[in-house]
Amino acid sequence: MNTAKKSSKDSYVATNSIKQKTLSADKWFFVSNMTVMNVHRILIDDDNPLHRELSIYRTGTINRVRLQDVSYKAYSSLEIDAHNYAAFFYYGLPELLNSLPFISESGNGLDSWDEAFLHNSALERMIIIIEERMVAIDAKQHETILLGWHDQPVGVAYVREIDPTGFLEFLETLKAFVAESTEEGYDLEFLL
Questions:
Q1: Where in the chain is the domain with CATH 3.40.1760?
Q2: In degrees rounded to 5, what are phi and psi of residue 146?
Q3: Is 17 helix (H, G, I), strand (E, B) or coil?
Q4: Per-residue CA distances from 44 to 53, 56, 83, 144 (Å)
Q5: pLDDT value at position 29?
Q6: Could you tell me the pTM of the whole model?
Q7: CA–CA separation, 169 and 162 (whole Å)
Q8: Per CATH, is 46-191 categorized as 3.30.200?
Q9: Distance CA 73, CA 79 (A)
Q10: Strand pairing of 35-43 and 156-162?
Q11: How far is 181 from 190, CA to CA, in rounded Å?
């Protein structure tokens, strides 16, 4: 599997089980099957409408619902913008939250690519998990993460800068949303 990550000297490292090579920030090289591929780096810009049209540009929503309702109704929502969506996955929140009893058609919780529901009885535990992750995030350590890449027609790596302070602010908003949902008897629907 090919990966790329930021090193401490603002260069990037692409690794797989065969080779490792330090690279400049402007161009990346991926090693695959003993061949080196020149890859252009595109830094995702939320203000660029062309970037917002890319399939790698993902957002999400968390809805307040009541699972016992006869018909579906979202009582209120919390939007997850593309920055916080990427940070949500980068900092491992789906894996941590999947310890909770999510209900989804595929049975894979937040990894299901369909809607996942969480009953009100599990929301207090969700808040604890979010708080534990918040403590582990270094607000001073900005990250540049690889969202995805392709090699045809030319090699392109899509990267995003993560602002941990902004993400921590989002997590505070999420905690408040979950706490209010707990108090008001709502369940949550995740559309990620």
A1: 46-191
A2: -90, 120
A3: coil
A4: 11, 9, 9, 10
A5: 52
A6: 0.79
A7: 13
A8: no
A9: 16
A10: parallel
A11: 13
